[in-house]
Specification:
The protein has about 260 residues and is α/β, with parallel strands linked by helices. It folds into two domains: about 140 residues, Rossmann fold; about 100 residues, no CATH class. It is built from ten helices and seven strands. Helix 3 packs parallel to helix 6. It starts with a helix and ends in a 10-residue tail after the last helix. The relative contact order is 0.13. The N terminus is likely disordered.
Length: about 260
Amino acid sequence: MINYRRRLNTKPKILVFSLTGCSGCIASMMSLDVSPQLLERTELLFFPFIHDNVNVIESDIAIVEGCVSTEQQIPKLKDVRNKAKKVYALGTCAAFGGILSLSKKKIADPISNYIEIDGFIPGCPPPSHLMGNYIIRLIENKEFFLPEKNMCESCPLRKNFDPNFIKDIIKIYPAPEDIILPEENPECFLKRGILCLGPIIREGCEHNCIQNGLPCEGCMGPVSRDLTSNIVNFLSLLNIEKDLKKYKGIFYRFSKPKIRR
């Protein structure tokens, strides 16, 4: 019995905190094959979706999903940071700002704009295999490293890609009748005149969108530096149709430009 208690005391204390988002990242986390291990091998101190505790208390690891969209959320987020040994951003909203970045009325800031974080798990929602592996590594107090290569490195359309071509980009998405699976048409989206952000976005999602006939929108975030600046620099290399240049959904779909506060 003494050994059992000692083993219980070694469980990492976990806090799961939500800001503004669709809660898709939390739903995906709880549907993982490893979610029973999360519940069995940790001590969940704060988790509004499944836990009655309403007070943020000291923890070993805090996992935060959702972006900062109101001033009232900032002191709560800082309280989480002060009481956690390590803080990780879960999902595109927490890591980069997320889809709320398209709003003209709301701020959509990544949590790293206000607190120091120890890492992030990108994706909208994060891919199951990626999130599952990283959750286990967090439980075991091991480091995890995000992929450092871009989507094109292992893209199923890579075989027919010509890196030297310059193509007019006339569409953001293929029309419903033009959605073609890679095995039916292995031609690169960019070569078809459809915008794909694969060249600047980190791999790790197993190309789920591309495998279903859709181009990469960028939810995994850039391999390095700021997402918006990467997009602007990438688009400057292409011939973008005039009407598309005014479409802010290209630039701000998952992140707004960083503003010094």
